[in-house]
Q: What sequence folds into this?
């Protein structure tokens, strides 16, 4: 099976992308923000065939979108921990994520 079919099946098995299963949004928002938006922000500034002011606007737009998505991903994770009574920032993954 294709990788995306396995991911869709995993999300469905974990309860989908509803507000009740807010933890499922965390990896989607973080990956979209960090990989897609930050990458496009870096590449757009150098490779777009427009004048510098237009490239700067595209660059800034991608950075702003990335920041919003990453903050939303963090909020989802903290909200999930609050709802279930878990302490925040207790694992190596969470520590490295905050340093990133």
A:
């Amino acid at each position: 099976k294709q990788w995306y079919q396995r991911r869709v099946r995993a999300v469905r098995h974990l309860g989908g992308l509803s507000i009740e299963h807010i933890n499922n949004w965390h990896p989607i928002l973080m990956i979209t923000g960090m990989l897609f938006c930050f990458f496009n922000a870096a590449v757009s500034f150098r490779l777009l065939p427009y004048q510098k002011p237009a490239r700067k606007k595209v660059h800034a737009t991608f950075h702003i979108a990335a920041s919003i998505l990453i903050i939303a991903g963090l909020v989802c994770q903290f909200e999930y921990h609050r709802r279930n009574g878990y302490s925040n920032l207790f694992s190596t993954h969470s520590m490295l994520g905050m340093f990133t």
User: Anything to note?
Assistant: The helical segments are 3-13, 25-47, 52-84, 92-99. DSSP finds four helices and no strands in the chain.
